[in-house]
Design a protein that fits this description.
- The chain is an alpha/beta fold and 398 residues long.
- It has a domain of 116 residues: abc- transporter (atp binding component) like domain (Coagulation Factor XIII, Chain A, domain 1).
- Helix content is 22%, strand content 35%.
- It is built from nine helices and 19 strands.
- α3 crosses α6 and α5 packs across α6.
């Protein structure tokens, strides 16, 4: 898929004509309108089989871009090239008739999404089973709860045999069990080599699924690249501290994000003897620590730490809030030591520490991805991310 220099504008009239009489009485009246540029020269390419995230604040042009790619809107300028069959998950449940039962709605919606009537009927049982609505097949949709409608709509949409899928905020609705089902479907679609464009505000989902991502701001592409880097810049934009324009990454510990009211001065690992270490034996006690300096007095804080492996897979995350520690106030020109001690059950390989400091009222103060690293040593190489203490048995059955 290629999006090349796509622009889209809308016009908002100052005065609206609601009746035919108003238009007939003043047929030649000049009406003024404001122009809104939703997309301005947007360009990027998505490889076949890639899971591609689209990030941006409300009003940044994400949904307009997806609707242009889906053919709902025609771009004013530019080109969009899509290879393969397209399916759009822009609004769950669009096309459902509340006065019809689930069976009729599944068939009609499946046909709208590109299935033949025979295919839609043949997949009905699979749709209902996935949605867990076997007891409500004959109930009219107007009597469904919102969660039941979401489950049914998503179940229909994943039955479409598409090469390219456009998904807009599908994880913003539904309970935790339904969201986990969405995750399972996403993993399956990735394994099947589907090309997926995914609009969301959920940063963990972006880092969990996406191979790359694009950040939009006011209809302009601000950054395309690694999902973690794009997600971090999205946080910066949200807090009004955008450093994208000409900013170079800091050299000590990579990029950092936040207001700067607090500064993560350094981070390091320690072995079971309390000595700074770059290697950590598997099974031994160890610690990860960071030193924080406050340049302003800040109230109601939370300090957190993420440990991840070389593949950027999250291994462990915790915060002062999770540990029952409440930080009500940190004075300006003071330093604090944040420490986490744990038994090292990680598998052999390099691990990284990414700390951050957050004020609940004002937002992110400082975050330093991968500020420290250490190598976990182990005589075993299981291929997993952790080696859990366990017992094993093997015996003949009588």
């Amino acid at each position: 898929m290629v999006v090349r220099e796509v622009s889209k504008s809308f016009h908002h009239p100052h005065e609206r004509v609601h009746t035919l009489k108003e238009r007939a009485v003043r047929p030649f009246r000049r009406r003024q309108a404001d122009r809104f540029d939703a997309l301005r020269g947007v360009s990027f390419a998505v490889k076949q089989g890639e899971f591609f995230g689209i990030l941006g604040r409300n009003g940044s042009g994400k949904s307009t871009l997806l609707k242009c790619m889906a053919g709902i809107y025609g771009p004013d300028r530019g080109e969009i090239e899509i290879g393969g069959r397209l399916s759009t998950f822009i609004e769950l449940g669009v096309g459902f008739n509340p006065d019809l039962a689930a069976r009729d709605n599944v068939v009609l919606n499946g046909i709208m999404l590109g299935l033949t009537p025979r295919e839609a009927r043949a997949r009905f049982d699979a749709v209902i089973e996935f949605a867990e609505l076997e007891e409500f097949v004959d109930l009219k949709l107007k009597n469904y709860s919102s969660g039941m409608q979401v489950r049914l709509a998503f179940s229909v949409m994943i039955q479409v045999d598409a090469d390219v899928l456009l998904i807009d905020e599908v994880l913003a609705v539904g309970d935790a069990a339904f969201q986990q089902k969405c995750f399972d479907v996403f993993y399956r679609l990735k394994e099947e080599g589907k090309t997926i464009l995914f609009v969301t505000h959920d940063m963990p989902a972006v880092q969990r699924f996406c191979d790359r991502a694009v950040l939009l701001e006011r209809g302009v592409v601000r950054l395309v690249g690694d999902p973690e880097r794009v997600a971090n810049h999205y946080i910066e934009v949200n807090f009004g501290r955008d450093r994208l324009a000409g900013a170079e990454p800091e050299q000590d510990g990579g990029e950092r994000f936040g207001s700067g009211d607090a500064e993560i001065v350094e981070g390091w690992f320690e072995d079971e003897h309390g000595e700074r270490a770059t290697t950590l034996p598997h099974g031994a006690r160890c610690s990860v620590k960071m030193r924080v300096r406050f340049h302003k007095t800040v109230e109601d804080l939370d300090v957190a730490m993420l440990l991840e492996n070389e593949l950027r897979q999250p291994l462990f995350a915790t915060s002062t809030g999770d540990g029952g520690i409440r930080i009500t106030r940190s004075e300006a020109d003071t330093e604090y030591l944040y420490s986490i001690t744990f038994d090292n059950h990680f598998a052999a390989g390099r691990i990284y520490a990414s700390p951050w400091v957050i004020a609940r009222r004002s937002g992110l103060l400082d975050r330093r991805p991968r500020v420290a690293s250490a190598v976990v040593t182990s005589p075993r190489n299981t291929g997993g991310v952790v080696e859990i203490p366990h017992e094993m048995s093997y015996e003949r059955v009588p």
